[in-house]
Design a protein that fits this description.
Strand content: 15-25%
Bound molecules: nicotinamide-adenine-dinucleotide
Number of helices: 16
Helix content: 25-40%
Strand order of the largest sheet: 14-15-16-13-12-17-18
Mean pLDDT: 96
Length: 488
Protein backbone atom coordinates (compact mmCIF):
# COMPACT_ATOMS: atom_id res chain seq x y z
CA UNK A 1 0.00 0.00 0.00
CA UNK A 2 1.24 3.45 -0.93
CA UNK A 3 1.50 6.35 1.48
CA UNK A 4 -1.48 8.49 0.63
CA UNK A 5 0.17 11.67 1.89
CA UNK A 6 2.98 11.49 -0.65
CA UNK A 7 1.38 11.97 -4.02
CA UNK A 8 3.57 11.98 -7.14
CA UNK A 9 3.43 14.57 -9.90
CA UNK A 10 0.68 13.59 -12.31
CA UNK A 11 2.04 11.91 -15.43
CA UNK A 12 0.62 10.64 -18.66
CA UNK A 13 0.63 6.87 -19.15
CA UNK A 14 1.62 5.92 -22.67
CA UNK A 15 2.75 2.55 -24.00
CA UNK A 16 3.06 1.14 -20.50
CA UNK A 17 5.25 3.95 -19.11
CA UNK A 18 4.58 7.05 -17.09
CA UNK A 19 5.93 10.21 -18.66
CA UNK A 20 5.75 13.89 -17.94
CA UNK A 21 5.76 16.28 -20.85
CA UNK A 22 7.32 19.70 -20.56
CA UNK A 23 4.09 21.65 -21.00
CA UNK A 24 2.41 24.04 -18.62
CA UNK A 25 1.06 22.56 -15.42
CA UNK A 26 -1.74 23.24 -12.99
CA UNK A 27 -2.04 22.49 -9.28
CA UNK A 28 -4.14 19.59 -8.08
CA UNK A 29 -5.90 20.74 -4.92
CA UNK A 30 -7.46 18.59 -2.21
CA UNK A 31 -10.92 20.01 -1.46
CA UNK A 32 -10.68 18.50 2.03
CA UNK A 33 -8.43 21.35 3.23
CA UNK A 34 -7.48 23.32 0.11
CA UNK A 35 -3.88 22.07 0.09
CA UNK A 36 -1.91 21.51 -3.11
CA UNK A 37 -1.36 17.74 -3.44
CA UNK A 38 0.13 17.40 -6.91
CA UNK A 39 0.63 19.07 -10.25
CA UNK A 40 -0.98 18.09 -13.55
CA UNK A 41 0.51 18.52 -17.03
CA UNK A 42 -1.67 20.31 -19.56
CA UNK A 43 -1.08 17.97 -22.48
CA UNK A 44 -1.44 18.88 -26.14
CA UNK A 45 -2.54 17.14 -29.32
CA UNK A 46 0.99 15.77 -29.70
CA UNK A 47 0.57 13.82 -26.47
CA UNK A 48 -2.86 12.64 -27.60
CA UNK A 49 -1.39 11.44 -30.87
CA UNK A 50 1.42 9.60 -29.07
CA UNK A 51 -1.13 7.82 -26.87
CA UNK A 52 -3.30 6.95 -29.87
CA UNK A 53 -0.28 5.55 -31.74
CA UNK A 54 0.54 3.41 -28.69
CA UNK A 55 -3.05 2.12 -28.54
CA UNK A 56 -3.04 1.46 -32.31
CA UNK A 57 0.17 -0.55 -32.01
CA UNK A 58 -1.24 -2.66 -29.18
CA UNK A 59 -4.60 -3.31 -30.86
CA UNK A 60 -3.79 -6.21 -33.25
CA UNK A 61 -2.28 -8.47 -30.58
CA UNK A 62 -4.78 -7.55 -27.87
CA UNK A 63 -7.82 -7.99 -30.09
CA UNK A 64 -6.46 -11.33 -31.40
CA UNK A 65 -6.63 -12.85 -27.90
CA UNK A 66 -9.79 -14.73 -27.07
CA UNK A 67 -12.30 -13.12 -24.77
CA UNK A 68 -11.52 -15.80 -22.21
CA UNK A 69 -7.83 -14.90 -22.35
CA UNK A 70 -8.46 -11.17 -21.97
CA UNK A 71 -10.66 -11.59 -18.91
CA UNK A 72 -7.88 -13.44 -17.06
CA UNK A 73 -6.09 -10.11 -16.59
CA UNK A 74 -9.23 -8.58 -15.16
CA UNK A 75 -9.64 -11.42 -12.65
CA UNK A 76 -6.19 -10.43 -11.36
CA UNK A 77 -7.00 -6.73 -11.57
CA UNK A 78 -10.20 -7.21 -9.57
CA UNK A 79 -8.19 -8.95 -6.83
CA UNK A 80 -5.83 -5.96 -6.74
CA UNK A 81 -8.75 -3.57 -6.31
CA UNK A 82 -9.78 -5.61 -3.30
CA UNK A 83 -6.23 -5.81 -1.95
CA UNK A 84 -5.72 -2.04 -2.22
CA UNK A 85 -9.31 -1.05 -1.41
CA UNK A 86 -8.33 0.98 1.65
CA UNK A 87 -5.60 2.88 -0.19
CA UNK A 88 -7.83 3.55 -3.22
CA UNK A 89 -10.58 4.72 -0.87
CA UNK A 90 -8.24 7.19 0.84
CA UNK A 91 -7.06 8.43 -2.54
CA UNK A 92 -10.64 9.19 -3.62
CA UNK A 93 -11.18 10.99 -0.31
CA UNK A 94 -8.04 13.05 -0.77
CA UNK A 95 -8.68 14.24 -4.30
CA UNK A 96 -12.49 14.40 -4.30
CA UNK A 97 -13.35 15.21 -0.69
CA UNK A 98 -16.07 12.62 -0.04
CA UNK A 99 -16.29 10.70 3.23
CA UNK A 100 -14.45 7.41 3.80
CA UNK A 101 -17.70 5.40 3.59
CA UNK A 102 -18.74 7.08 0.34
CA UNK A 103 -15.30 6.63 -1.21
CA UNK A 104 -15.22 2.96 -0.16
CA UNK A 105 -18.64 2.37 -1.73
CA UNK A 106 -17.25 3.84 -4.94
CA UNK A 107 -14.31 1.42 -4.98
CA UNK A 108 -16.65 -1.46 -4.19
CA UNK A 109 -18.79 -0.44 -7.16
CA UNK A 110 -15.65 -0.51 -9.33
CA UNK A 111 -15.10 -4.10 -8.17
CA UNK A 112 -18.68 -4.95 -9.20
CA UNK A 113 -18.07 -3.36 -12.59
CA UNK A 114 -15.00 -5.58 -13.05
CA UNK A 115 -17.08 -8.60 -12.08
CA UNK A 116 -19.44 -7.79 -14.93
CA UNK A 117 -16.51 -7.42 -17.33
CA UNK A 118 -15.08 -10.82 -16.40
CA UNK A 119 -18.49 -12.39 -16.95
CA UNK A 120 -18.46 -11.37 -20.64
CA UNK A 121 -17.51 -14.85 -21.89
CA UNK A 122 -20.81 -16.07 -20.41
CA UNK A 123 -22.78 -13.25 -22.02
CA UNK A 124 -21.14 -12.50 -25.37
CA UNK A 125 -22.01 -15.67 -27.22
CA UNK A 126 -22.13 -15.20 -30.95
CA UNK A 127 -25.15 -16.23 -33.01
CA UNK A 128 -25.31 -18.82 -35.77
CA UNK A 129 -28.22 -20.25 -37.77
CA UNK A 130 -28.64 -22.54 -40.78
CA UNK A 131 -30.70 -20.16 -42.91
CA UNK A 132 -31.02 -22.48 -45.96
CA UNK A 133 -29.99 -26.12 -46.22
CA UNK A 134 -26.17 -26.08 -45.96
CA UNK A 135 -26.00 -22.27 -45.70
CA UNK A 136 -25.15 -20.66 -42.36
CA UNK A 137 -25.30 -17.06 -41.20
CA UNK A 138 -23.31 -15.98 -38.15
CA UNK A 139 -22.91 -12.75 -36.25
CA UNK A 140 -19.75 -12.11 -34.28
CA UNK A 141 -19.03 -9.11 -32.07
CA UNK A 142 -15.75 -7.47 -33.00
CA UNK A 143 -13.94 -4.65 -31.19
CA UNK A 144 -13.88 -1.19 -32.72
CA UNK A 145 -10.15 -0.38 -32.39
CA UNK A 146 -8.85 2.58 -30.38
CA UNK A 147 -11.54 4.17 -28.20
CA UNK A 148 -11.51 7.11 -25.78
CA UNK A 149 -13.08 7.72 -22.40
CA UNK A 150 -13.46 11.19 -20.85
CA UNK A 151 -14.44 11.32 -17.20
CA UNK A 152 -15.74 13.87 -14.62
CA UNK A 153 -14.57 14.79 -11.13
CA UNK A 154 -17.33 13.34 -8.99
CA UNK A 155 -16.43 9.63 -9.05
CA UNK A 156 -12.65 9.48 -9.62
CA UNK A 157 -12.51 5.71 -9.23
CA UNK A 158 -15.94 4.46 -10.33
CA UNK A 159 -16.66 6.36 -13.56
CA UNK A 160 -13.37 5.23 -15.19
CA UNK A 161 -14.53 1.70 -14.33
CA UNK A 162 -17.84 2.28 -16.14
CA UNK A 163 -15.88 2.22 -19.40
CA UNK A 164 -12.35 0.79 -19.10
CA UNK A 165 -13.02 -2.87 -18.10
CA UNK A 166 -15.83 -3.49 -20.62
CA UNK A 167 -14.12 -1.73 -23.51
CA UNK A 168 -10.83 -3.56 -22.96
CA UNK A 169 -12.27 -6.99 -22.26
CA UNK A 170 -14.19 -6.69 -25.53
CA UNK A 171 -10.88 -6.24 -27.35
CA UNK A 172 -10.52 -2.46 -27.77
CA UNK A 173 -7.53 -0.39 -26.70
CA UNK A 174 -8.15 2.91 -24.93
CA UNK A 175 -6.99 6.46 -24.27
CA UNK A 176 -8.53 7.92 -21.11
CA UNK A 177 -8.74 11.60 -20.18
CA UNK A 178 -9.57 11.96 -16.48
CA UNK A 179 -10.94 15.13 -14.93
CA UNK A 180 -8.05 17.51 -14.29
CA UNK A 181 -9.46 18.00 -10.77
CA UNK A 182 -9.04 14.31 -9.77
CA UNK A 183 -6.33 12.66 -11.87
CA UNK A 184 -4.67 10.54 -9.15
CA UNK A 185 -7.12 7.63 -8.98
CA UNK A 186 -6.83 7.05 -12.73
CA UNK A 187 -3.02 7.04 -12.49
CA UNK A 188 -3.19 4.42 -9.75
CA UNK A 189 -5.60 2.42 -11.92
CA UNK A 190 -2.93 2.30 -14.67
CA UNK A 191 -0.33 1.02 -12.18
CA UNK A 192 -2.64 -1.74 -11.01
CA UNK A 193 -3.53 -2.74 -14.59
CA UNK A 194 0.18 -3.08 -15.29
CA UNK A 195 0.62 -5.13 -12.13
CA UNK A 196 -2.24 -7.38 -13.29
CA UNK A 197 -0.37 -8.01 -16.55
CA UNK A 198 -2.13 -5.76 -19.05
CA UNK A 199 0.11 -5.45 -22.14
CA UNK A 200 1.70 -2.06 -22.82
CA UNK A 201 -0.35 0.31 -24.96
CA UNK A 202 -3.73 -1.32 -24.29
CA UNK A 203 -4.60 1.41 -21.79
CA UNK A 204 -3.22 4.96 -21.95
CA UNK A 205 -3.87 8.19 -20.06
CA UNK A 206 -3.50 11.75 -21.32
CA UNK A 207 -4.00 14.45 -18.69
CA UNK A 208 -5.12 18.00 -19.27
CA UNK A 209 -8.13 20.16 -19.98
CA UNK A 210 -10.47 20.86 -22.87
CA UNK A 211 -7.68 20.85 -25.50
CA UNK A 212 -7.14 17.13 -24.82
CA UNK A 213 -10.87 16.45 -25.14
CA UNK A 214 -11.06 18.33 -28.43
CA UNK A 215 -8.04 16.53 -29.77
CA UNK A 216 -9.55 13.13 -28.84
CA UNK A 217 -12.82 14.04 -30.60
CA UNK A 218 -10.93 15.08 -33.73
CA UNK A 219 -8.33 12.31 -33.93
CA UNK A 220 -8.99 10.25 -37.08
CA UNK A 221 -7.78 6.99 -35.52
CA UNK A 222 -10.17 7.04 -32.58
CA UNK A 223 -13.33 5.09 -33.33
CA UNK A 224 -15.56 5.88 -30.37
CA UNK A 225 -15.84 8.43 -27.57
CA UNK A 226 -17.47 7.83 -24.24
CA UNK A 227 -18.05 11.00 -22.21
CA UNK A 228 -19.41 11.60 -18.72
CA UNK A 229 -19.77 15.15 -17.39
CA UNK A 230 -22.00 18.21 -17.54
CA UNK A 231 -24.71 18.64 -20.19
CA UNK A 232 -22.96 21.72 -21.58
CA UNK A 233 -19.79 19.76 -22.35
CA UNK A 234 -21.67 16.56 -23.29
CA UNK A 235 -23.34 18.50 -26.13
CA UNK A 236 -19.99 19.89 -27.32
CA UNK A 237 -18.35 16.46 -27.24
CA UNK A 238 -21.27 14.68 -28.90
CA UNK A 239 -21.38 17.18 -31.76
CA UNK A 240 -17.62 17.27 -32.20
CA UNK A 241 -17.28 13.47 -32.16
CA UNK A 242 -20.10 13.14 -34.70
CA UNK A 243 -18.40 15.84 -36.77
CA UNK A 244 -15.44 13.53 -37.18
CA UNK A 245 -17.74 10.52 -37.77
CA UNK A 246 -17.24 8.70 -34.48
CA UNK A 247 -19.80 6.85 -32.46
CA UNK A 248 -20.38 8.61 -29.15
CA UNK A 249 -22.33 8.23 -25.98
CA UNK A 250 -22.23 11.37 -23.84
CA UNK A 251 -23.77 11.40 -20.39
CA UNK A 252 -24.69 14.83 -19.08
CA UNK A 253 -25.99 16.52 -15.96
CA UNK A 254 -29.16 15.95 -14.00
CA UNK A 255 -32.02 17.48 -12.05
CA UNK A 256 -33.59 14.54 -10.28
CA UNK A 257 -37.11 14.82 -8.89
CA UNK A 258 -38.37 12.79 -5.94
CA UNK A 259 -42.17 12.70 -5.76
CA UNK A 260 -43.35 12.28 -2.17
CA UNK A 261 -46.96 11.22 -1.78
CA UNK A 262 -48.93 11.69 1.45
CA UNK A 263 -49.16 7.93 2.12
CA UNK A 264 -45.36 7.49 2.06
CA UNK A 265 -43.70 5.84 5.05
CA UNK A 266 -42.54 9.01 6.90
CA UNK A 267 -39.39 7.63 8.52
CA UNK A 268 -38.06 5.81 5.47
CA UNK A 269 -38.95 8.63 3.11
CA UNK A 270 -37.34 11.39 5.17
CA UNK A 271 -34.09 9.49 5.61
CA UNK A 272 -33.96 8.40 1.93
CA UNK A 273 -34.58 11.92 0.62
CA UNK A 274 -31.98 13.44 2.95
CA UNK A 275 -29.42 10.76 2.11
CA UNK A 276 -30.05 11.22 -1.60
CA UNK A 277 -29.59 15.00 -1.55
CA UNK A 278 -26.64 15.12 0.86
CA UNK A 279 -24.68 11.94 0.03
CA UNK A 280 -21.35 12.70 -1.72
CA UNK A 281 -22.18 16.34 -0.86
CA UNK A 282 -24.89 16.28 -3.51
CA UNK A 283 -22.27 15.78 -6.23
CA UNK A 284 -23.91 12.70 -7.73
CA UNK A 285 -25.71 12.74 -11.03
CA UNK A 286 -28.29 10.59 -9.20
CA UNK A 287 -28.74 12.96 -6.25
CA UNK A 288 -32.18 14.24 -5.30
CA UNK A 289 -32.39 17.87 -6.32
CA UNK A 290 -36.12 18.61 -6.24
CA UNK A 291 -38.64 17.10 -3.87
CA UNK A 292 -42.18 17.45 -5.13
CA UNK A 293 -44.39 17.18 -2.05
CA UNK A 294 -47.90 16.10 -3.02
CA UNK A 295 -50.74 17.36 -0.80
CA UNK A 296 -50.08 16.92 2.94
CA UNK A 297 -46.43 15.98 3.53
CA UNK A 298 -45.52 18.49 6.25
CA UNK A 299 -44.75 15.69 8.73
CA UNK A 300 -42.17 14.24 6.33
CA UNK A 301 -40.59 17.67 5.74
CA UNK A 302 -40.32 18.24 9.51
CA UNK A 303 -38.49 14.92 9.86
CA UNK A 304 -36.19 15.83 6.98
CA UNK A 305 -35.29 19.09 8.70
CA UNK A 306 -34.49 17.21 11.92
CA UNK A 307 -32.28 14.68 10.10
CA UNK A 308 -30.53 17.32 8.04
CA UNK A 309 -29.64 19.35 11.12
CA UNK A 310 -27.94 16.26 12.56
CA UNK A 311 -25.47 16.05 9.64
CA UNK A 312 -22.00 17.29 10.55
CA UNK A 313 -19.87 18.71 7.71
CA UNK A 314 -16.36 17.29 7.80
CA UNK A 315 -17.63 14.18 9.62
CA UNK A 316 -20.54 12.59 7.79
CA UNK A 317 -20.65 15.13 4.97
CA UNK A 318 -17.66 15.65 2.70
CA UNK A 319 -16.53 18.77 0.89
CA UNK A 320 -17.59 20.03 -2.50
CA UNK A 321 -14.92 19.97 -5.17
CA UNK A 322 -13.67 23.58 -5.31
CA UNK A 323 -14.00 27.14 -4.10
CA UNK A 324 -15.92 27.95 -7.33
CA UNK A 325 -18.36 25.09 -6.68
CA UNK A 326 -18.95 26.33 -3.12
CA UNK A 327 -19.66 29.85 -4.36
CA UNK A 328 -21.96 28.62 -7.15
CA UNK A 329 -24.01 26.51 -4.72
CA UNK A 330 -24.27 29.29 -2.14
CA UNK A 331 -25.29 31.79 -4.83
CA UNK A 332 -28.15 29.49 -5.87
CA UNK A 333 -29.41 29.39 -2.27
CA UNK A 334 -29.21 33.17 -1.92
CA UNK A 335 -31.00 33.74 -5.23
CA UNK A 336 -33.85 31.41 -4.19
CA UNK A 337 -34.15 33.19 -0.85
CA UNK A 338 -34.23 36.60 -2.56
CA UNK A 339 -37.00 35.33 -4.83
CA UNK A 340 -39.23 34.34 -1.93
CA UNK A 341 -38.30 30.73 -1.15
CA UNK A 342 -37.83 29.75 2.50
CA UNK A 343 -34.47 28.30 3.57
CA UNK A 344 -35.38 25.74 6.26
CA UNK A 345 -31.82 24.48 6.79
CA UNK A 346 -29.01 26.76 5.61
CA UNK A 347 -25.62 25.32 4.62
CA UNK A 348 -24.03 28.59 3.55
CA UNK A 349 -20.83 29.84 5.22
CA UNK A 350 -19.89 26.43 6.55
CA UNK A 351 -16.35 25.88 7.76
CA UNK A 352 -14.79 22.83 9.35
CA UNK A 353 -12.47 23.33 12.26
CA UNK A 354 -8.93 22.28 11.43
CA UNK A 355 -9.78 22.26 7.70
CA UNK A 356 -10.49 25.96 7.23
CA UNK A 357 -9.05 25.90 3.70
CA UNK A 358 -11.51 23.18 2.61
CA UNK A 359 -14.64 23.75 0.53
CA UNK A 360 -17.68 22.86 2.60
CA UNK A 361 -21.38 23.56 2.11
CA UNK A 362 -23.74 22.29 4.78
CA UNK A 363 -26.88 20.36 3.79
CA UNK A 364 -29.61 22.76 2.76
CA UNK A 365 -33.39 22.50 2.46
CA UNK A 366 -35.25 25.21 0.55
CA UNK A 367 -39.04 25.15 0.80
CA UNK A 368 -41.77 26.91 -1.18
CA UNK A 369 -39.72 26.84 -4.35
CA UNK A 370 -41.65 27.65 -7.52
CA UNK A 371 -41.02 26.13 -10.94
CA UNK A 372 -39.72 29.38 -12.42
CA UNK A 373 -36.82 29.63 -9.94
CA UNK A 374 -33.34 28.59 -11.04
CA UNK A 375 -33.05 26.18 -8.07
CA UNK A 376 -36.06 24.35 -9.55
CA UNK A 377 -34.65 24.11 -13.07
CA UNK A 378 -30.85 24.11 -13.05
CA UNK A 379 -28.36 21.54 -11.80
CA UNK A 380 -26.89 22.85 -8.52
CA UNK A 381 -24.58 19.88 -7.83
CA UNK A 382 -24.36 20.43 -4.10
CA UNK A 383 -26.12 19.19 -0.94
CA UNK A 384 -29.27 21.21 -1.59
CA UNK A 385 -32.88 20.14 -2.05
CA UNK A 386 -35.64 22.39 -3.32
CA UNK A 387 -39.16 21.55 -2.22
CA UNK A 388 -42.01 22.32 -4.61
CA UNK A 389 -45.57 21.76 -3.39
CA UNK A 390 -48.08 20.08 -5.72
CA UNK A 391 -51.82 19.52 -5.25
CA UNK A 392 -51.92 16.05 -6.79
CA UNK A 393 -49.90 13.41 -8.60
CA UNK A 394 -50.74 14.74 -12.08
CA UNK A 395 -49.35 18.15 -11.15
CA UNK A 396 -46.25 16.51 -9.63
CA UNK A 397 -45.65 14.49 -12.79
CA UNK A 398 -46.07 17.60 -14.95
CA UNK A 399 -43.35 19.30 -12.88
CA UNK A 400 -41.03 16.31 -13.33
CA UNK A 401 -41.82 16.08 -17.04
CA UNK A 402 -41.07 19.79 -17.43
CA UNK A 403 -37.36 19.32 -16.68
CA UNK A 404 -34.88 19.43 -19.56
CA UNK A 405 -32.94 16.67 -17.81
CA UNK A 406 -34.04 13.08 -17.25
CA UNK A 407 -31.43 11.09 -15.37
CA UNK A 408 -33.44 9.75 -12.42
CA UNK A 409 -36.84 10.19 -10.78
CA UNK A 410 -38.33 8.50 -7.75
CA UNK A 411 -41.64 8.15 -5.97
CA UNK A 412 -42.26 7.52 -2.30
CA UNK A 413 -45.62 5.89 -1.62
CA UNK A 414 -47.17 2.73 -0.23
CA UNK A 415 -49.59 2.46 -3.13
CA UNK A 416 -48.55 0.12 -5.92
CA UNK A 417 -51.00 1.75 -8.32
CA UNK A 418 -49.64 5.26 -7.79
CA UNK A 419 -46.05 4.01 -8.00
CA UNK A 420 -46.89 2.35 -11.31
CA UNK A 421 -48.19 5.67 -12.68
CA UNK A 422 -44.84 7.30 -11.87
CA UNK A 423 -42.92 4.36 -13.33
CA UNK A 424 -44.85 4.85 -16.56
CA UNK A 425 -45.07 8.62 -16.80
CA UNK A 426 -41.83 10.01 -15.34
CA UNK A 427 -39.54 11.23 -18.10
CA UNK A 428 -36.27 9.81 -16.83
CA UNK A 429 -34.02 6.90 -17.63
CA UNK A 430 -33.75 5.53 -14.09
CA UNK A 431 -36.76 5.29 -11.79
CA UNK A 432 -36.88 4.56 -8.07
CA UNK A 433 -39.81 3.36 -6.02
CA UNK A 434 -39.10 4.13 -2.36
CA UNK A 435 -35.42 4.44 -3.31
CA UNK A 436 -33.70 7.82 -3.34
CA UNK A 437 -30.70 6.91 -5.50
CA UNK A 438 -32.02 4.38 -8.04
CA UNK A 439 -28.70 3.31 -9.58
CA UNK A 440 -29.21 0.12 -11.57
CA UNK A 441 -26.72 -2.53 -10.45
CA UNK A 442 -24.83 -4.69 -12.96
CA UNK A 443 -25.83 -6.22 -15.35
CA UNK A 444 -28.56 -3.56 -15.69
CA UNK A 445 -27.33 -0.56 -17.59
CA UNK A 446 -26.85 3.04 -16.49
CA UNK A 447 -28.02 6.02 -18.50
CA UNK A 448 -30.55 8.84 -18.47
CA UNK A 449 -32.96 10.42 -20.94
CA UNK A 450 -33.45 13.88 -22.45
CA UNK A 451 -30.49 16.21 -21.88
CA UNK A 452 -28.94 13.79 -19.39
CA UNK A 453 -27.62 11.62 -22.21
CA UNK A 454 -26.84 11.94 -25.90
CA UNK A 455 -26.33 8.91 -28.10
CA UNK A 456 -27.81 5.45 -28.41
CA UNK A 457 -27.71 2.92 -25.56
CA UNK A 458 -26.39 3.20 -22.04
CA UNK A 459 -22.87 3.35 -20.69
CA UNK A 460 -22.66 0.20 -18.56
CA UNK A 461 -24.15 -3.28 -18.37
CA UNK A 462 -25.37 -5.24 -21.37
CA UNK A 463 -26.03 -2.05 -23.30
CA UNK A 464 -22.32 -1.20 -23.27
CA UNK A 465 -21.54 -4.37 -25.23
CA UNK A 466 -23.33 -2.84 -28.22
CA UNK A 467 -21.40 0.38 -27.85
CA UNK A 468 -17.92 -1.15 -27.62
CA UNK A 469 -18.35 -3.65 -30.48
CA UNK A 470 -19.48 -3.89 -34.07
CA UNK A 471 -21.22 -6.89 -35.61
CA UNK A 472 -19.52 -8.93 -38.31
CA UNK A 473 -22.06 -10.92 -40.35
CA UNK A 474 -20.71 -13.93 -42.26
CA UNK A 475 -22.62 -16.28 -44.55
CA UNK A 476 -21.00 -19.63 -45.40
CA UNK A 477 -21.66 -22.61 -47.67
CA UNK A 478 -19.19 -25.51 -47.66
CA UNK A 479 -20.97 -28.41 -49.32
CA UNK A 480 -21.46 -28.05 -53.10
CA UNK A 481 -24.77 -29.89 -52.97
CA UNK A 482 -26.25 -27.32 -50.60
CA UNK A 483 -29.62 -26.05 -51.72
CA UNK A 484 -29.47 -23.44 -54.48
CA UNK A 485 -31.72 -20.46 -53.88
CA UNK A 486 -31.71 -16.68 -54.27
CA UNK A 487 -28.74 -16.40 -51.86
CA UNK A 488 -26.45 -18.62 -53.89
P1 LIG B 1 -17.42 18.75 -16.84
O1 LIG B 1 -18.38 18.65 -17.95
O2 LIG B 1 -17.00 20.10 -16.39
O3 LIG B 1 -16.07 17.95 -17.17
C1 LIG B 1 -16.10 16.63 -17.66
C2 LIG B 1 -14.87 16.42 -18.54
O4 LIG B 1 -14.94 17.31 -19.65
C3 LIG B 1 -13.56 16.69 -17.82
O5 LIG B 1 -12.64 15.69 -18.16
C4 LIG B 1 -13.16 18.07 -18.33
O6 LIG B 1 -11.77 18.24 -18.41
C5 LIG B 1 -13.76 18.12 -19.73
N1 LIG B 1 -14.18 19.48 -20.14
C6 LIG B 1 -14.58 20.49 -19.33
N2 LIG B 1 -14.94 21.57 -20.08
C7 LIG B 1 -14.75 21.23 -21.37
C8 LIG B 1 -14.95 21.90 -22.61
N3 LIG B 1 -15.41 23.15 -22.68
N4 LIG B 1 -14.66 21.24 -23.76
C9 LIG B 1 -14.20 19.97 -23.74
N5 LIG B 1 -14.00 19.29 -22.57
C10 LIG B 1 -14.27 19.90 -21.41
O7 LIG B 1 -18.06 17.92 -15.62
P2 LIG B 1 -17.54 17.82 -14.12
O8 LIG B 1 -17.75 19.13 -13.44
O9 LIG B 1 -16.20 17.20 -14.06
O10 LIG B 1 -18.56 16.74 -13.52
C11 LIG B 1 -19.81 17.06 -12.99
C12 LIG B 1 -20.90 16.90 -14.02
O11 LIG B 1 -20.90 15.57 -14.52
C13 LIG B 1 -22.28 17.12 -13.46
O12 LIG B 1 -23.03 17.86 -14.40
C14 LIG B 1 -22.84 15.72 -13.29
O13 LIG B 1 -24.25 15.63 -13.33
C15 LIG B 1 -22.22 15.05 -14.47
N6 LIG B 1 -22.20 13.60 -14.31
C16 LIG B 1 -23.12 12.88 -15.00
C17 LIG B 1 -23.16 11.52 -14.86
C18 LIG B 1 -24.20 10.72 -15.58
O14 LIG B 1 -24.18 9.52 -15.47
N7 LIG B 1 -25.10 11.33 -16.32
C19 LIG B 1 -22.27 10.87 -14.01
C20 LIG B 1 -21.31 11.63 -13.33
C21 LIG B 1 -21.29 13.01 -13.49
Amino acid sequence: MKDIKEQPQVQNFIDGSFERNGHAAMDVISPVDGSVISSLPLSTNLDVDKAVQSALKAFPEWSALTLKERVQIFFKYRTLLEKYCDELTQLVQLENGKTYGEAKAEVEKSIELCEFAVSMPQIVVNEIQEVSKGVECRIERKPLGVVASITPFNFPNMVPHWTMPNALVLGNTMVMKPSELVPLSTMRMAELLKEAGLPDGVFNIVNGGKEVVESLCDHPKIEAISFVGSTKVAKIVYQRAAGSLKRCVALGGAKNHLLVLPDANPEMTASNVVASMSGCAGQRCMAASVMVGVDQVQGIIDRMVEETKAIVPGENLGSVISAEAKKRIEDYITEAENNGAKVLVDGRNTTVSGKEGGFYVGPTIIDYVTTDMSVAREEIFGPVISIIRAKNLDEALAIENGSNYGNAAAVFTQSGGLAKQVMEKASAGMIGVNIGVPVPREPFSFGGWNESKFGVGDITGRSSIEFWTQNKKTTTKWNPEAQVNWMS
